[in-house]
Amino acid sequence: MHLVVNGQPKQFEGPLTAAGLLAVLDLDARAVVVELNRRIVRRPLLEQTQLDDGDEVELVHFVGGG
Amino acid sequence: MSVGTDSPLVIGGHSFRSRLFVGTGKYADNAQMIAAIAASGAECVTVAVRRVNLDRSKAEGVLHHLDPVRYFLLANTAGCYSAEEAIRYARLGREAGFNDFVKLEVIGDQETLLPDVAGLLVAARELVADGFKVLAYTNDDLITALRLEELGCAAVMPLASPIGSGLGLLNPYSIRTIKRRLRVPVIVDAGVGTASDACLVMEQGVDGILMNTAIAEATHPIAMAEAMRHATESGRMAFLAGRMPRREVAAPSSPTGGMAG
User: Fold this and answer.
1) Chain B residues whose beta carbon lies within 8 Å of the beta carbon of residue A62
2) How far apart are CA A15 and CA B49, in angstroms?
3) Confidence at B229, pLDDT banded by 50, 70, 90
4) What's the confidence (pLDDT) of residue B28?
5) What is the CATH number of the domain that holds B30?
């Protein structure tokens, strides 16, 4: 399955949920926010949110800032 | 009179222990950041929302270092150049964080990082309607500050001088006027360079001050953080104490009578 994650084209084994993507990328779901095609996926919905071929995913978190 | 007898700073229903708010950017490393924040005595610390770095085996966000129980994490929309972008980042920050507060920035110019006040008003309206407690970073302009208050912002944050400039408080009159006319808390945000700047800001009677670069880019950030804590408290105490009037002529402090003949 082809996804664009944080602007980078990437290939993944499908099927894949949003929670599954975080697991594959070794990211902590408690500290990362998933935006799927410009819509935020609330944390309780990560497990049931299926990703589709061509989806654009943004993974963001808090960093130092003023 | 002491800072201990001062009324608490309440923004959007949250009571803050310290009137000094600090950023978490630009530090040499996380240990230095944590030590500086502790030395500053700040409760409210700002954070930015950015992409996770996928090229690292274990992405290190600031949440790995900052205890969200000890600190009130205030997400900003730094780096956003339109109302639409700022609204998007505010929502990402709310989802990433632990509260519905946002330090709203809509930047209008890359060189000065001065606010785009037209975009700011649009974004503030939308975010207030969406349930956010909006702390709006703005110019030292009374009319914009009044409009932000009318829109329902929880606090208005006029600048002392441009972000990261260290130029200090350029227009004390504007800041005093904004404070005098607004009912919501006024937090001066950006431009402080050293402790005397922070003290001078607080002496204007504002409710608080937010800084990042003045601490992080000091030669010794942890020591500067402590200096800023004292300066913020000193300026606040001096304001509450009420300064003497300015005179154009001297007034002797020692008795004028009783001089030896």
Assistant:
1) 47-49, 61-63, 73, 75, 93, 96-97
2) 29
3) very high
4) 92
5) 3.20.20.70
